Amino acid sequence: GQQLNQSPQSMFIQEGEDVSMNCTSSSIFNTWLWYKQDPGEGPVLLIALYKAGELTSNGRLTAQFGITRKDSFLNISASIPSDVGIYFCAGHGSGTYKYIFGTGTRLKVLA
Amino acid sequence: EAQVTQNPRYLITVTGKKLTVTCSQNMNHEYMSWYRQDPGLGLRQIYYSMNVEVTDKGDVPEGYKVSRKEKRNFPLILESPSPNQTSLYFCASSPDIRQHNEKLFFGSGTQLSVL
Questions:
Q1: CA distance to partner chain B, nearest, from residue A111 (Å)
Q2: Interval B37-49: pLDDT, tens
Q3: pLDDT tens track for A75-105
Q4: Under an 8 A CB cutoff, do B106 and A1 touch?
Q5: Distance between CA B46 and CA B66 in Å, rounded?
Q6: CA A16, A18, A24: angle at the middle one, nearest 5?
Q7: Rounded CA gap, B31 and B50, in Å?
Q8: Which residues of A touch B108 (CB under 8 A)?
């Protein structure tokens, strides 16, 4: 099945630094979702985006729906140790009944 | 509390012994889906259901069965498990995937090991 190209695959950053990651698709999407997953746990929805160009924040997290509708970006500002985990995107196009998932960005924060 | 509940959380079984992983949601969602997550492969869809009595194959349906007799429940059945079905499984639900403002909510996962 199709998967989204998510980058970077992993990041090691210092506490307090900002983080950026992105997802790209060969298809146009109507919805982008961003999740965080802790080891052995279920993904938790962070941000949902529904319109091209939309910029949405959730605390220190900000995500954008790309203008081309083929990409999305997630930024984390002033990272803290509890930001550690795997972040992944999911996209959904019109006329389909399935979500496509990115392969994830593994984030590690060094105190 | 609105949630997707999977059971069991951990399961160790032997090859060929039929098992069922249950999934229940209390949000009156129409859409439910099962995924497996394997290292390096991300989340792959096994089966999904648009509503009661409506199910369809995802990307990796071989070796699995599902049923949707009630709106809230969507069990995953492995009739004859094999070691290559060792994986972390997630159930998820959404109000209506055809709407333009849907969100997908996941359960906490079931770690299955088939010996």
A1: 27
A2: 998 888 899 999 9
A3: 999 999 999 999 999 998 877 778 889 989 9
A4: no
A5: 9
A6: 155
A7: 5
A8: 41-42
